Amino acid sequence: MNTSVNAKTEYANISNNPSIAYRSIGQGYPIILANRFRGNLDTWDPAFLDALAKTNRVITYDYVGTGLSKGTQSDSNLKMATEIKELAEALGIKKFAIGGWSYGGMIAQMALTEFPEMISHGIMIGTRLPGPDVAPPQKVFFERALKAVNDLDDETVLFFNPEYPASVKAAKESHDRIAARKSDNDVAMTEAQWNNLLTSRDYVEDKHGTYKKLQETKIPVLGLLGENDISFAAEDWFTAKGKFPTVSMMYFAQTGHGPQHQFPELSAKYINEFIQH
Fold this sequence. Notes:
This protein is α/β, with parallel strands linked by helices. It has one domain: Alpha/Beta hydrolase fold, catalytic domain (Rossmann fold), CATH 3.40.50.1820. Helix content is 36%, strand content 17%. Helix 4 runs antiparallel to helix 5 and helix 5 packs across helix 6. The mean pLDDT is 96.
């Protein structure tokens, strides 16, 4: 059975012929997922991807110039969003749902607003809106996220909610599921590569009018938000109440930055039902 733990890493050629690494599981309507800060093909929770793949074709990928993808790393968020469009074209996909977690949610929002003719639904997980932060990242986020290597304790703080024993337990379970892949593994981002991500400012400075385009879009958007997201607080979305007519939000209590890793099957259920309507 083709699952996220044993899915083969494949490669697609996009503009200027770099080789972009991706994995594809499941059959059905396509979902392309853009990853978190420092994330790669191996950092998605297999339980979440496999649950999504019960009714969809789920595609994960490495940003150009990172992980197993070749080429020169993009120097803007718009170029990173364009990678999604070009990957879909390379795979012969004309219409798809775009999803993004954390940093990937920023890229997904830009893809949705810049290439709306290709996108049917948006799924934004633990991410922020364009422009200034209403609630900037907590100090502990930078203390943990910028460490050379992250261990389980870091993951618990970064993506879960250590205030609650159930969330701590879920962090260990998610960690073990991710570690189950033993072959055809990805390569971690280098410090230079993830620092390059921090220099891309066109989304956070809203240089392309993404905020206004989100207000005007007809594409339905689902947000999955954690109670104590130390990176991108849920309040960022709550203060925009009424400004984004197509946005629906699911708020997960006793969670952090990665609700889809704490509640993989439930998160996938919400997403699958959202895409079907």
